[in-house]
Structures are given as C-alpha cells and as structure tokens.
C-alpha cells in the first residue's frame, strides 16, 4: 500500500476521533467534587430558564456540562439544553436504546469493565477489532448510528448512577480506553469509508447532546501516523481537552503503567491484564 493511501486511511480515522475528543472530553466538574459555589448561581439561572426536563438532564452536574460547553453563557446553555430535551423526545430515546443491534454488538464490540477508584465508569473500545466491512456485508449500516447513540446513552446513564466512594458525590463522567491494536488498513479501506458518514453523524449527535461526559481518554497501541497527526492538530484543540487525551504508540509500554496507576486491575479489560 502506498504511503499516501496509508495516510488517507489514518487521517479519516483520526478525523472522526478528533471530532469526538473535541466535543466530549472533560468532565466539567473538577475531580467530580462538589460544584464550586461561584458556579451554583449560574446553574440556578439556567434552571429558571428550563422546565420539564427528565431526571438525567436536570441535575446540577448535567446543567454544568452545558454551561462549560457554552463557556458559561447562561442563555446559550439553556437553549442547548432545550434542544437536547426536544431531541430526546423526538428520538424517543428510551425506545431507541432497546433497538436490537445484536449483530453490531458482535461486529463493533465495547464493554464497561468497571470503575476507577473515584467511581468513574471505565469503557473499553477495541477499535482495532471493529469490522466495518462486516457491517456492510450484514447490511447494518442503517443501524450504525443508533448503535453508537446507544453507546453514548449507556455511558451517560452509567455515570449518572455512579458516586464517588470517597466523597459520596455523584459521578458524571467516564474513562475511555481506545485500543487500536490490530487495526487493519485493508479493513478500513473496504469498510470504513462506507460507514464514515454514519459515524460522523453520530459524533455530531454526541457533540450536541452528550457534551463533557468523558473525563479522560487513553488511546493505546496507535499507528505511528496517528500520533504524528495528533501532534500537529492538537494545537487547534482547547488545552483542557488536550490534557484529557493520552495517546501511546504500538511500540510504547508507558500505557501499561499509566493504566495501572489510573484504574484498578479488576476494572481493566481482560485483554489488558497487566
């Protein structure tokens, strides 16, 4: 495979993950601790402008996520929350998450493997095993966006039910491990391109309706080109987002010690037992 073709494939993959990081990284609550008093007034102002929210949107932590998304602009935050509430109603989100995507769950696996010491859910996505070619062969591309939305909703609901065992404060963010081991260039060429539009649309949904729900990202065993592109493009990503993303190449062993220090062994995926 030519260098240019290899670059294009890695770039398309990187672009989707770049959008993902730029839109969802950061938990909006420093260390999941009690919300600072100076921010409570802003949260109260937002709450007075919205009504009829379901429980998962009406908490202080949820309202603060939208405040952070809008650089703490009360009116804009309230507007975006209303848009999300309307989107959830129009999508009938409670029924959407019951949609049968069993075929995709095998083809594009992920799992919640446990929690950090602070109670943050840990999600493991072996992206290198995601077979987009099989998605096309099984004619599941039309359900791909729903499948990814289910992942986003599962993340939101899992975090919403969690508490920090040390402070008993609610947890509103998760830790994601993205494993690129086994990433097949041939597989990406044959399947990724056809699925890219659905993936892109799903990530835009996350940007609009699931902001700031990920505390930190560990991208491990990444191709060399991926790391090079991140080095140049991260300058266009907000500094607070960059600080949540850690990328390790296939030849690095540092990710092992990083994961061991951040996540209890029992919460690591079996594939990564260290």
TrEMBL record:
The keyword Signal is annotated on this UniProt entry: yes
GO cellular component annotations of the record: cytoplasm
Protein's recorded name: CRAL-TRIO domain-containing protein
Superkingdom of this protein's organism: Eukaryota
Keyword vocabulary terms for this entry: Signal
Family annotation (InterPro entries): CRAL-TRIO_dom (IPR001251), SEC14/CRAL-TRIO_domain (IPR051064)
Alphabetical list of PANTHER family matching this protein: SEC14 RELATED PROTEIN (PTHR23324), SEC14-LIKE PROTEIN 2 (PTHR23324:SF83)
Native species: Allacma fusca
Signal peptide: 1-26
Location of the CRAL-TRIO domain: 100-274
